[in-house]
Amino acid sequence: MSDILVHAENGITTLTFNRLDKKNSITVAMYAALADALKTAEEDSGTRCVVFQGHETIFSAGNDISDFLNRPPSDGESPVFQFLRRMATFSKPVLASVCGPAVGIGTTMLFHCDLVYAGDNAAFSMPFANLGLCPEAASSLLVPQMFGYHRAAEALMLGEPFMAEAALEVGLVNRVLPPTEANNYAQSVARKLATKPLSSLVETKRLMKGAQQERVLKVMQEEGASFGRMLGEPAAREAFTAFMERRAPDFSKL
Ligand code: COA
User: Fold this and answer.
1) CB of residue 114 inside a 6 A radius of ligand 1
2) Does ligand 1 come within 6 angstroms of the Cβ of 104?
């Protein structure tokens, strides 16, 4: 079965991370599948909204670490950047249901969603500094805007997980639910949105987000250039190798 399940029904496209054995970490092929699915959903006039979901126990462990080591993004046309640009420019409502860990891009992609529902087991983290990396997905802009600077610095510099209730408090999450109910609840909200005039939803989103869109894309590009360079540097290589070898990284000589 595919690592990304695409299910389109009654105007709702549901994209499910389905790589449980690797904690729904996202490979190059999965980014390509997500970018394609978003393109189809954008262009299909019958599609009213998109829902991202994972499993009750895990949303996503972020980028596949062996891909970071062996198949890092080579340029701005790499599937990860195509996916992120689609997220940042998607004109229709995007919802997410998040249970369990949401690591790295599993969290930063949520800043491009319109409505986020979380299981009470959701644990969000952006551990870029622990991996010798820097923020991506315009998170260096969007996290301070949403959290305030000091809480953003804590999230992006310490990279420690924060739970659903904290995410609710800073405005990343709309509602916290039992994990068994989160996906169904997101679907019920998507069904509600699907009954509304699409033109009003698209215009509402454009008015809320449009003014900042160019800035978001520019920041993403700048972050992407740094991220791409840092992926090949010693700190990131040490962090990825340590993860694969199931040991703590040693940055003491770097
Ligand atoms: N890339 C590739 N494989 C990953 C992965 C990732 N990001 N995250 C988990 N996996 C794999 C593990 O290597 C392991 O594979 P194996 O069974 O073949 O050894 C399997 O998924 C289970 O992972 P494990 O760490 O044992 O699960 P856990 O429940 O103890 O912890 C996480 C779950 C998500 C907290 C933990 O896996 C984790 O921190 N992953 C790395 C997250 C990360 O740093 N992502 C990059 C962000 S930029």
Assistant:
1) no
2) yes
The three-state DSSP-derived secondary structure of 116-131 is: EEEECCCEEECCHHHH
Exposed e or buried b per residue across 178-217, where buried means at least 16 C-beta atoms within 10 angstroms of its C-beta = ebebbbebbbebbeebbeeebeebeeebeeebeeeeeebe
- pLDDT tens, position by position, 115-142: 999 999 999 999 999 999 999 999 999 9
Q: Which residue of 18, 25, 59 sits with most ligand 1 atoms within 8 Å of its CB, as the best mutation to test the pocket?
A: 25
What is the DSSP pairing of strand 49-53 with strand 4-9? unpaired
Judge if the beta carbon of residue 23 lies within 6 A of ligand 1.
Answer: yes
**pLDDT reported for residue 32:** 98
Residues of the chain scoring pLDDT < 70:
none
Please, what is the angle between helix 28-43 and helix 79-89, to 10°?
30
Ligand 1 within 6 A of CB of 30: no
CA of 62 to the centre of ligand 1 (A): 9
62 lines ligand 1 (CB under 6 A): yes
Please state whether the predicted TM-score (pTM) of the whole model is above 0.90. Answer: yes
Collapsing DSSP to helix, strand or coil, 175 comes out as strand
- Reported as a single tens digit per residue, the pLDDT across 174-188 is 999 999 999 999 999
As a whole number of angstroms, the distance between CA 149 and CA 144 comes to: 5
Ligand 1, atom 1, lies closest to the CA of: 64
